[in-house]
Model the fold of this input.
Amino acid sequence: ILHCNTIGPRNFGFSEFVLIYDASVICWSGQHLPWAIIAVLLAAFVIIPFPFYTGIAIRFPKLKPITDVYCSIYKDSQRYWVIWDLLRRIIIVMLGVFVINFI
Done:
């Protein structure tokens, strides 16, 4: 939803910022705008802060049943490693989505 690129000659002002997977969709306008806003809000308030929410939940024993879903492979004294694992996964996905020419 957010992977856009400029196509067309940039020197003459005819370039357009279009969606990579469907070049007929112009990014950040028309039909793309509401979906892009939803994606940015989800990333900002759910996906990126999720490891931090997990870190807070690990510190409270009452929330242990909730954190057991994704922390059960670690001993109780080592549960903080799930935070690093989640951050690593988010970084890998963000590199794959947002970095176009990384090789």
